[in-house]
Amino acid sequence: ARGAGQEGRATPAGEVVVVLSEQLLSSIVEAIAAQPVPPKYRLSREGEAGGGGCADEVALLPESKGTRTAVRFVEGRITAPVAFRGAYEPPLFGCVNFEGWADTAIDLEFDSAKQALNARLRVREVNLRNVPSFGGGGLAGLVQDAIDSRVNPIEILRADQLGAGLPASRGSLRLRAKEVRHEVAGKELRLRILYEVVRTE
Question: For the whole prediction, is pTM greater than 0.70?
Fold first, then answer.
């Protein structure tokens, strides 16, 4: 009898290839930024409280003076300019309204426990407009921290949605993603999802 000793055991099952276009990913990111109430993130400053009438936050925008929030595949990498607008109150000064865009790289990572492929925006450079010279340096860092720590992670795909339940005489079988590899080829993101069959009760 093989029964209970095999509970939770996994057997390799093969792989599924999923192709996502640059346009599809870009449409998702654009839709997030173009919501009627855009996503807003607090500009945190250790040991400082925000000013009374100043929001001290950054909001994502679909576009800022010609720079559109979008996903681009460039030389095998995934990049995304992210437009934003916000308000900030530097110490000893009044509220400063600012606008600009962040040059970001997108890293993909597979969360095995959640069976999800996540994207993480990694800010490489912050470009600010309408900011006096006294506040630019510190503000760029706050915007970068807000995007890096509060926007991430972004769920792109749940690998278990591509799996299937399998009939079994005792217990049940299901497909579980074991690994996700990716490559950017031209304007396509190719995901190779390696599955295994696991027995559950």
Answer: yes
